[in-house]
UniProtKB/TrEMBL annotation:
SUPFAM superfamilies: Casein kinase II beta subunit. This is Casein kinase II subunit beta. It comes from Knufia fluminis. Coiled coil: none annotated. GO terms for biological process: regulation of transcription by RNA polymerase III.
Amino acid sequence: MSATSSAGVDSWISTFCSLMGHEYFAEVSEDFIEDDFNLTGLQAQVPMYKEALEMILDVEPSETGSELSEEEEEEEEQDEEEDEGLLGEELDQPAEGAAEGNGAVANRRRGRSSSDTSVIESSAELLYGLIHARYITSRPGIQQMMEKYEMAHFGYCPRVYCHGTKVLPVGRTDTPGQETVKLFCPSCLDIYTPPNSRFQAVDGAFFGTTFPGLFLMTFPDLDIAPAKKRSRDNGVTNEREETESVLSPNEAAAQQQLGAASRSSSLTLPSAPPIPGVNTQSAKDERRAAEAAALAALPPQPASINGVATQNLAPGLGRGKIYEPKIYGFRVSERAKGGPRMRWLRSKPLDINELDEARLYHEKYGGNVDGDPDEEADEEEGDEEDEEEQEHDGDQIMQSADKATSTKRKSKNARSSRGGAAVAAGGG
């Protein structure tokens, strides 16, 4: 490849990203690739690393490689001439033998160069994918992925209750060759297989496991829910708006016409007889009142948890957003063989404070969120120990003082008793 490409010829990176099935890739800047720090540890994972890196950067092969190839060609020619001399065929048919020898050497050169090129191309794709996984976690790379996310290059979540939330590419492992790329939905926190089969050949390690979480932490003010599905203050959603947002314009218009027809028919047809003892409207009102009371009784909610904004923490999960299978309007029993399973994956506590497990743990066992010991608690414990030591020392001093005074009193009493005995003896 030439070192400098003309204006009409695209670089290897742009050509690679424009291939079918590579729409998820971002174009890594050459400055990022030329920094050796960003390529640490990749040389051991990629065969023919140097040649692959030169192909990615559109750099001509090194002179040492060309010199070695020329020396190898000369050695092959010498070997061919020696073989022909041993056989002695060059004396009888010198022209034919030379032509056959030159053709064999040319075929070997052509075969070796084509095989080397295919290996270098596959190595270049592997190397670029591993570099890409590191690039999209850097500041310029994640900004480039943000632009692709806003233009919905990665697609939408297929789940109904996510209401068309945009998804992000993710890999289930950082080891290449294990699994293909998946799509992560920040609304339901689930991963899906891309709907188009052309993405089934893209390695998931080229995007890594870190990108979606880091993306949401980098843009905490990003509203991942669609405009019509953003959370309301009272927590109650409009079912008609939800249906219209999921359907296309033609389907929405057809549904409106169908609703108008059903309303007109309901004016002419007799209404269904009410069921005695059951008031559906009062039951709905009671349910809504209970939900409003539960929301009002909640403690203050945190603004973010682990760097992720609270409004972006699984908005498609929780009460009212779990699918309930029904047959002709009747719910399927949870104990039935075809009933709902794994509903806990879609559950979400009403109080977001329950998800802040790090804070709850440190409130119970001490320390702070960073894992360091609580300095204030240690200082308080140290002060208490110092006070106890001072009190203990004071008690010992007081006890020694009391002992000294008691011994003095005893000595005085002994002296006085001796003096009295002497006076009594003299008077007698």
